[in-house]
Every structure is written in C-alpha cells, then in structure tokens.
Amino acid sequence: MASSLLALIDDIASILDDVAVLSKVAAKKTAGVLGDDLALNAQQVSGVKADRELPVVWAVAKGSFINKAILVPAALAISAFAPWAVTPLLMVGGAFLCFEGFEKLAHRFLHSRQEQQAEREKLVAALSDPAVDLVAVEKVKIRGAIRTDFILSAEIIAITLGTVQTSAFVTQFTVLGSIAIVMTAGVYGLVAGIVKLDDGGLYLTQLQGEAAGRRVQRSLGRGILAAAPRLMKGLSVAGTIAMFLVGGGIITHGLAPLHHFIEGLAAKAGTVLGAITPLLMDAMVGVITGAIVLGVVILVKKVLPAKAGSHP
Asked: Is 191 a member of any domain?
C-alpha cells in the first residue's frame, strides 16, 4: 500500500512537472493568437454604456469559458479518433474569420456615409435613451464576440494540442485545461482594463489639490481621456486586420503547397522582407478567402428566396 501510494505520488509529480514545462511552451506558442484575441474582443465591447461594459465583458468571458469547455474535450476526442479532421475543421473556422473581416470591409465601403451615419445615430439613440432596453444591443455584441472567440479559441487549443500530442492523455488534458483557463482569464482581464481605461482617466482628472503630483495626475487623466477613443478605434482596425491574419494563416498552413510557396518567397526576400512576407501573404489570402465566402453567401441568399418563392 505504501509503495503504491509513493508510486502514485511520483507519477502525479512527474505529470505536474511535464504539465508545467509543456504549459510554458504552449503559452509561448499561443502568445501571438492571444494578442489577436485581445484586439478582436476589446473592439467588440466598445459602444455600450459605461456601467454595462464590465457585465458585457464578463458575459463574453463566460461564453469563452463555455467555448473552451466544449473545445478541449472535442480536441482530445478528435486527436484520439480522427486526427485527420483537425486541419479541415480549423480551415473552416479560418474561412469564417476571413468572411467576418471582409464583411466588415464591405459594409464600410459599399454603404454610403449617410447610411453609416444613420446606423450610428440609431445606436447612439439606443445607448442614450434610458427608456430603451439595451439587452438586444448587448446580446448582438456578446454573440459576435463569443462567435469570434470560438474560432480563436479553437486555434489556441489546436496549437496547444500539437505541443502535447505525443504526451500521455492526462498530461494532454491538464495542459489544455490550464492553457484554456489562463488564456481566457488573461484576455478578458486585459479587455476589462482597456474598456475601463476612460473611467480611470476621468477619475484622475477629478482629483483635487494643487500639489505637483495632483497636477501631474490630472494631466495624465486628460491624456488618457484623449487617447482612449483613438485606442478603441485602433483596436477596431487591429481586430479586422487580425481576422485576416489569423484566418488567412490557418488557410495557408492547411494548404501545404501554398504554405511551401510562401516559405520559398520568404527565403528569397531577405532578412527584413522575409520576416513580413508570410504576414502579408496570410493577410492577402485572408482577404481573398473572405471575398469568396462573402460572394458565396450573397449568392446563396439570393438563390434560396427565389427557390422558396417558386413553391405554391
């Protein structure tokens, strides 16, 4: 009994040691996706009332935890029984990200400024009118953020799974679970900080006193208030770019000939250009994929109503 217990403790200690090392490796590999996730989700929660920002972030974070609670067991099952399906599923998710990114661009460039202004005025009216129920507005933002999070979470889980694919099942499960928790907490903790940045700036501007420290704090607060809108606008742009980079990157990595072609271009481009060539190509593939998917979606929407209308 004692020897069995010691053997069990030794096994657990070994697993935990493996988990610590592999989690560190996986965290480094997924750090880039974490940045994309941050940019994408911070801009999703901009535009809601200040006292509803954190509840919205929390709602999206809960959705993200649910996403990962689905993805971790699914990834383990697919890895065990159908490892060939991982890449195609990721490519479907990547194509969806490209579609969402291109849809945003199309909406911006295919609609007149008057239409966009009307939409903004409608949103502002909804946000400023206390009689209007904001639940519908919030639900749309939350669903969009959770949907985007699902694709990015799938990529994080897939990258992590690739790190521990040859390890024991217990190690795989523990590493995937720990990465899922740490990444979610990290992303949405930072998102919460970003969306409340203007509140922090407002607090600093309202500090009383004429001491040098207080004046510096008020100046800092005014600077934060001036920078916060630009930061959110920048995150919105970065979020769209990230959709093309992440989605296009998934597509190019899933198509071996295209991936090798890009690697060849990068090798010939030299040190500086070689470093940015894969990113530019991923973005280009992302834009093209998004345009194709959006075209298919528009075509299907036009065809389906016609077919539906042909029936008596």
From this structure: yes
Domain contains 4: no
For 307, the token pair is 């077919």
Residue 157, token pair as written in the block: 């889980």
User: For residue 245, is it within any domain?
Assistant: no
What does the angle CA 38 – CA 42 – CA 48 come to, to the nearest 5 degrees?
Answer: 165
Contact between 65 and 150 (Cβ < 8 Å): no
pLDDT in tens, 23-67: 555 555 555 455 555 555 555 555 555 566 677 778 878 888 998
Q: Rounded mean pLDDT of 273-287? A: 88
Count of structural domains, the chain: 1
Neighbours of 88 (CB within 10 A): 11
pLDDT at 303: 84
Under 8 Å between Cβ of 48 and 127: yes
8 A C-beta contact, residue 252 and residue 282: yes
Give the helix/strand (H/E) hosting 132: none
DSSP state of 111: S
Q: Give CA–CA dist 173/229, Å, rounded.
A: 41
Q: What whole-number distance in Å separates Cα of residue 265 and Cα of residue 278?
A: 8
- Is residue 222 included in any domain, yes or no? yes
Residue 130 pLDDT > 90, yes or no?
no
Decide: pTM greater than 0.85.
no
State the average pLDDT over residues 129-151. 69
- 274-299: buried (b, 16+ CB within 10 Å) or exposed (e) per residue? eeebbbbbbbebbbebbbebbeeeee
Structure tokens at 78: 């697919």
Residues 197 and 228: beta-carbon distance below 8 Å: yes
Instruction: Say how many CA atoms lie within 13 Å of 41 toward its Cβ.
Output: 37
Q: C-alpha angle 170/175/177, rounded to 5°? A: 95
Q: Which domain holds residue 158?
A: 18-240
Q: Which of 236, 255, 165, 184 lies closest to 30, judged by CA?
A: 184
